[in-house]
Amino acid sequence: MKTSSMTARTLDAFARMSIGRAFASGIGMVAGGFLVLLVLVAIFAPWIAPFDYAAQNLMNANAPPGWPHLLGTDEFGRDVLSRVIFGARTSLSVSATAIAISMAAGMTLGAAAGYFGGFFERAVMTVVDLTWSFPDILIALIFVAIIGPGLTSTTFAIAIAYLAQFTRLTRAQIVRLKRETFIEATINLGAKPSHILLRHLMPNAIAPVIVVGMLAIGDGIVLEATLGFFGLGAQPPTPSWGAMMSSGTAQLFLSPWVIIFPGVAVAVTVIAVNLFGDELIRALDIRDRLRGS
Amino acid sequence: MILRYTAQRLLMLIPVSFSISVVIFMIVYLLPGDPIDNLLRVGSSPEDRAELVAQYGLDRSLVVQYFVWIGNMFQGEFGQAIVLRRPVADLIAQNLPYSLTLGGLAFLFSSTVGMALGTLSAMVRNPVLDRFVRGFILLGSTVPGFWLALLLILFFSVNLGWFPVSGARGWESLVLPVLTIGFGGVALVARVTRVALLDVQREDFVTLLHAKGLSSGAILFRHLMPHALLPVVTILALRIGWILGGAVTVEFVFGRPGLGSLLIRALGQRDYPVVQACLLMLALAVMLGTLIGDVAQAAMDPRIREKKS
Amino acid sequence: MHYSSKSKLLSGSAIVAGAFLFSAAAMAQDVTVAFSASELGATAYNPVAASKLNTATSLIFDRLVEQDADQSFHPHLATSWEETPDGMAWTFSLLDGVTFHDDTPFNAAAVQFWIASYEGTENEYLVEAIGSVDVIDDLTVRFNMDRPEPNLLYNLASAFMGIPSPTAYAALGDDFGVTAAVGTGPYRLESFEIGLQTVLTRNDDHTWGSDLSENTGPGHIETFTFREIPDQSTAFLELRTGGIELLLGVPTDFLQILQAEQNIEIIQMPGTGISYMPINVTAAPFDDIRVRQATGMAIDQDGIVAAVYNGVGAPARNFLISSLPEANVDPDLNVTYNPTRAGELLDEAGWMMGGDGVRVRDGERLSVDLFTENSTEFTRLTQVVQAQLGEIGMEATITVFDSSTIRDEYRRNAHQLAVRGYDWNNSDILDWFFSGNRLGYPNVSMWEDAEGQRLNDIAMTESATAAERIANFTTYHEYVLSQHLFVPIYQPTQNIAFNSDAITVPDPVRGSRFRGQSFLDIQVAE
Predict the structure, then answer these.
(1) How far is A10 from chain B (nearest CA, A)?
(2) Engineering a disulfide at C143: which of B162, C90, C169, C204 sits with its beta carbon 3.0 to 4.6 angstroms away?
(3) Are residues C468 and C434 in the same domain?
């Protein structure tokens, strides 16, 4: 599928066709299926988890995996499996919300910069280029230091850390599309800027941004886990995969399962996100457009 | 041509560094809490407080404070750390070598191993090997650094006893941190090398070289590698900030000193001058990296220099 | 090219890694020590001016007197002392032949200079009662007191009263303790990398150890390297893997595992502090004393000792460690677990049990903030406390702060409950945490009370003798307890662990803490 054939497609059709196509490949099906399952697990966590994630049983602390605690218990005797299941809720929702905010803000900034150009573009891109080269973990850490620990600040910290990426990408798409003949024709026909931007430029720019957003959810999960590991994300007893590993550091030797299972959850999820994202890129045939930005 | 481009890029750095210095200066004023509170003796009077505020120049207007600060920075005068109570320059001098050693070795490790892996998967047409390398690339770019670090400690330090668990004494203590940071870097470099080699292999001159009867090895090292080298340099240069500052998690897990951990400690203690100096150093490194990356890209692709000049 | 260099790299590292295994035993003359978590973050080896000191300080500086575990005082740089019957003058005879690391002599003039240097520092309170210091002769000084100070010997034995070289102290100014630290102690400061490590080398001139050490002469070990390892579990792993030989604070969680290790021995000493939960009396619902009392009764101290700390240490029932005489208060004032009574008190206060297990009053849920510091020991305890508060229908939300931010929160009066601890083996800690002059921090309870301040003043400044001081502090302590300003939780033990293949450590340990006097007796294991 070539980019030119995408011009008239609405977001709906994009979702239906290309996501369907991504599922069609073997890897895409496994990865996508896993992600769908994970989202279901997160949504229905209270019904799926075998135990209360916060219920302490100090007499049965650090029990190795077995029955009835399939993945063992942590230092408070809490069921690790239940916490991993509820942790999926925290990790997925924080990451997805953060990336959604980041995408919305980044697309607005990037589209404005790309469309209007000039001094505004230069100013935005200067800041964006520098933050883009800064490690995401540092940006997030500084932000959390400013507004304090917790899930809300973690969400915004992740959103800010990836803002540059979406701004850059959207701008690059807009700049490229502006040069295409059908847009030039529309401009020459005297259409209003807002009309051009919303009706013609954005729908065409959106596909790569969404794919990158999809991949960024994976990065967001890792960043959330890292902040949680530093003790800055979910506050106890709320489980998140990262926070579980932070209380697990002390237990690395005593009960490695407390660290290993949440880490595996992060790794498998992020790998699935990446594999599915790759299939999406292939299905949409937008690899070249991503590389150019 | 490339010189002119470099000069242009250098000139562009002036407004950029000005804006970044303002941003860094302002970040500190967004932080809640006050380092003066940490300095004040318990139960001291408002006058004591005012005196300390004046001593650190925090009573002047922000604009004045900014120009005093930036002027001092230009003279290499980083000021006095408020909580750690010593010249910031000393703290930087104490921590920077650790960051540079770790970053440099991670850089070296990522580029050599990454290029080797990338070359292997591009040149040797073996589906099993290719899948292995691609799997490795995927793992390296997805596994959280701190988790990898913990697993490495569990396996190599606790179970095998090969390397120290933490600290920064001797080369032994560098092995696991370099591996941790390098793992992600290896994946990145391997991916870039692989793509670059696959691209260049398709070009006509390579077919020509093969037709001329050159051995595959000779073609690889004399003609293909230079093409793969530049993208690798570019991607690594653009990632200098990540290697220096992003090492913060690794420094934390391994209890290593460094710019990242100094910055995190100073953030926690609201030690303004240290936070500012650390961020400035990192920003400088990032700008340098971006410059090198851009120039390398321009050297690679003449279209870029023409377009921008 | 790349293949060959890669394999060379791998085989090379395997060989050197093997060599590293065998090198551990060879470095025995250099003993590496890890500080306990509570000692981390000292910024200067300056006993006079620093507000935070670590164990290495006690190796660089000597004190006039030393205190043993039984609270008795022993001569050190002062060979004897005499207090006038009215307590208004103390005369000290000083040890002859003592020199500082810079070869200047230790004498009466040095003591005079040193006491005067406390003026205007954070530690000024230590010498507050001393009006002036007279040099009687080269080796005799007299402290003329403004008021009797029964606590003087305790103060003199404190780490904050190590004696610096007057010459170096005057010359270095603010750099004293940072670039160099000069005392008379058994070890010299070789290097100090803040937040990382401190290297001490043996002072071969030192022949004046106190009678708390078997060895009075120079130390047995040439070099002590003190490392700051931020994470306690990392320090534990370092000890287990041979990265360090001595660990000054073993988290209780790890005691059992370490006890099972062949080459690791553990010394347990009585603790010098408690973990507790201050209650902000100005923040609703804790402005109601019944709610505060109920909160105290929610905490199952015995259960915590048994389950969280594997039975190591003791429950805390009041604010002071139980070895202090002032801890013997009216038993009714001690805080004990009684969830039934807690429920009744909350009912009386109008907080009725709601359907979801959280109490409600006028449609408002009994939901409170529970702050803690970002360290393994406190976050763990806090989560157990949170669960126990839940049992009486109080919903506590935890926020974990770093140690500096949490003080800002206290000063802003933004807190309700917090879990924290202190380390101090003297009853004047009551003044530190409950004086109305220090609201916010250290008075986290935000308690301001005329009667309390009156009893505080009496205890602090109007005690003529040790017995009077004990009585006055006991009264003050009892009044503090009657106001339910905090919940005592746990008295930890001091756990010191060492690698017995590498070193031997004095047994039993003399002194109230494992510090200078014990390091002098550490030897390389045969």
Answers:
(1) 32
(2) C90
(3) yes
On whether both C282 and C390 belong to a single domain, the answer is: yes
Average pLDDT, chain C: 89
Number of domains comprising chain C = 3
Answer whether B32 sits within 8 Å of A146, measured CB to CB.
yes
Residue C338 has pLDDT above 90, yes or no: yes
The mean pLDDT of chain B is 80
B268–chain A Cβ distance below 8 A for any pair: yes
Q: Residue C135 is part of which domain span?
A: 61-167
Q: Which of B42, B168, B269 has its CB closest to that of C442?
A: B42
Q: Which two tokens stand for residue C191?
A: 């290097």
Q: What is the pLDDT of residues B123-178, one digit of tens each?
A: 777 778 878 887 888 888 788 888 998 889 888 988 888 888 888 878 888 999 99
Percent of residues, chain A, with pLDDT higher than 70: 83
Q: Both C149 and C241 in a single domain? A: no
CA proximity to C433, closest of C280, C293, C249 = C280
Does A228 lie at the interface with C, CB-CB under 8 angstroms? no
Q: CA C514, C516, C521, C526: dihedral to nearest 10 degrees?
A: 80
Decide the pairing of beta strands C367-373 and C395-401.
parallel
Of A253, A256, A267, the CB nearest to B142: A267
Question: Both C69 and C18 in a single domain?
Answer: no
- State the pTM of this model: 0.84
> Within a 10 A sphere around the Cβ of A112, how many other Cβ atoms?
18
What's the Rg (C-alpha) of chain C? 25
**pLDDT score of A2:** 33
Rounded CA separation B207/B214 (Å): 10
In C404-443, the residues whose Cβ lies within 8 Å of chain B are: 404-405, 407-408, 411, 435, 437-438, 441-442
Cβ–Cβ contact C307 with A under 8 A: yes
What CATH number is attached to the domain comprising C111?
3.90.76.10
Tell me if C176 is assigned to some domain: no
Q: Which chains touch A (3 or more CB pairs under 8 A)?
A: B, C
Is there a contact between B81 and C174 (Cβ–Cβ < 8 Å)? no
Task: Kindly state whether residues C366 and C482 are assigned to the same domain.
Answer: yes
Write the pLDDT tens digit of every residue in B261-300: 888 888 877 788 888 888 888 888 888 888 888 787 777 6
Is C46 inside a domain boundary?
A: no
Q: Using an 8 Å CB-CB cutoff, list chain B residues near C3.
A: 116, 120
CATH classification of the domain holding C430: 3.10.105.10
Q: Are A61 and C383 a contacting pair at CB < 8 A?
A: no
Phi/psi for A196 (5° steps) reads: -60, -45
